[in-house]
Amino acid sequence: MQLYYIERTLPDLLAGLALSAELAVFGILFAFIWAWLLVGGQRSQLPPIRMASQVLVDFARYTPVLLQLFVLYFGLPLIGITLSAFFCGVAALAFQQGAYLAEIFRGGINSIDKHQVQCGVALGLKRRTVFYSIILPQALIKMLPAIGNQVILLFKDTTIVAAIGIMEATMTAKVLSEQSGATYFLFLMVAVIFIVATSVLGLVVRYLEGIRRRRYGI
Amino acid sequence: MDILIDAFPYLAKAAFQTVWLSVATILLATAVGSVLGVMSVLYKHVFGPLISVYVFLIRGVPILVLIFVAYFSFPTFGLYLNDYVAVLLVLVFYGAALISEIVRGAILAVPYAQTQSAQGLGLRRWQIMTYVLLPQALRSCIPPLLNNYVHLVKCTSFVSVVGVWELTLAAREVTERTGAPFTILLTVMLFYYAICYPMAKVGRRLERNLGSSEEAL
Q1: Which of A92, A97, A100, B137 lies in disulfide reach of B107, CB 3.0 to 4.6 Å?
Q2: Contact B185/A75 with Cβ under 8 angstroms?
């Protein structure tokens, strides 16, 4: 019976997982853009911008992503912006994870020796060129494991959109279990699906780190 | 503003639930996690692999899914728990997995020469652990632990999804009743901020003082 049941419900759950993956892809994309803006703000010459971006980063990091999602989902329509539930989810994920990424970016950029900037300037390069072609490539290579970790966390966080009624894997499992009365079995299946998915992601990150080690020796 | 004043006692009561849940989670998860971490170092061959599998399984699953699995499977196994106890158990399982990794890492980060000298002095295994390794590991594991506590406090908000009443669920109720999402939700976010920010700040200061900053989180 269980096998038959797995066979019948698995496609629906996998469709939910695909939705999660879609959310994660958009979430990561916007999180990178958002993090980039935040880092730019934190490194700005103007103190108000610097402070504002730091406040945003802290606010995003020290409040639950679920509440950020509710603000977007229930609040935005009141000020005349109607996003679909899906993009509310994307925005909430990007808002929080972007702040985490911003901290990673900042740490990575600061970890590159300041002498390199001086050397670059002494060679007559523009500050912009020094940043984009000397500092950033090294920082990105250094940050790779932390970024990979954050991507996996973001993927796991996509389940929160169940709270606003999007049919991702968890919500699908809830609806199916209410229809069938199989109380916990479906959630176990979702758990297994997620273990497999995050392991695969973990392996990809590990593989990239392997390439990095062979090429750059760190 | 009137809405906020009216709703404030209700939210404060809910905030108390969240604080209570967080403190219980943090204390129990730290206790269980530390024991697991120490065991996985002391009995590397017996408990080590078991604990690694446990950590792997817990970390691979989103906390929300864990809450669903546990919340709906306890009654099936004849465990009729109070709502709060059920979600507390899940949060402790989850937190313990993360904390055991931190503790294990901190113990392993103590230079091996320390263990060797202690062995040379004729100390037993558990004596080396309690008198030599743990006091040194404690220093380096406090900043990542505090970061983790912040994470756990934020995780308590997920229990609202299965209908356990705490700050996030109360915020949602009040929002739906009053139709003032910004006022209520932003106030509630400030509650969480007030809990999490000091912890993170202390963590960062200690991290700077101890001069160890491997964790970028």
Answers
A1: B137
A2: yes
Q: What is the mean pLDDT of residues A115-126?
A: 89
> Into how many domains does chain B fold?
1
| Range A83-86, long-range pairs (CB < 8 A, 24+ positions) | A85/A161, A85/A164, A85/A165, A85/A166, A86/A23, A86/A161, A86/A166
Hey, CA dihedral for B38, B41, B47, B49, is it positive or negative? positive
> Which residue of B57, B168, B186 is in closest CB contact with A195?
B57
Q: Mean pLDDT in chain A?
A: 89
> Domain for residue B123, yes or no?
yes
Counting one residue from chain A and one from chain B, the pairs whose CB atoms sit within 8 A come to 124
Contact list, B76 vs chain A (CB under 8 Å): 183-184
Q: What is the CATH number of the domain that holds B92?
A: 1.10.3720.10
Q: Looking at this predicted complex, what is its ipTM?
A: 0.87
Which of A58, A166, A171, A187 is the best residue to mutate to test the B interface, defined by the most B CB atoms within 10 Å of its own CB? A187
Tell me the residue range of the domain where A27 lies: 2-216
Count of CB atoms within 10 A of residue A136's CB?
A: 15
C-alpha separations of A76 from A67, A85, A201, B95, B163 in Å? 13, 11, 33, 34, 24
Contact A154, A135 (CB under 8 A): no
- Inter-chain residue contact B62 with A195, CB threshold 8 Å: no
Q: What is the pLDDT of residues B161-217, one digit of tens each?
A: 888 899 999 999 998 888 888 888 999 999 999 999 999 999 888 887 775 444 443
Placement of tokens 């979702």 in the chain: A190
Mean pLDDT calculated for residue range A54-78: 92
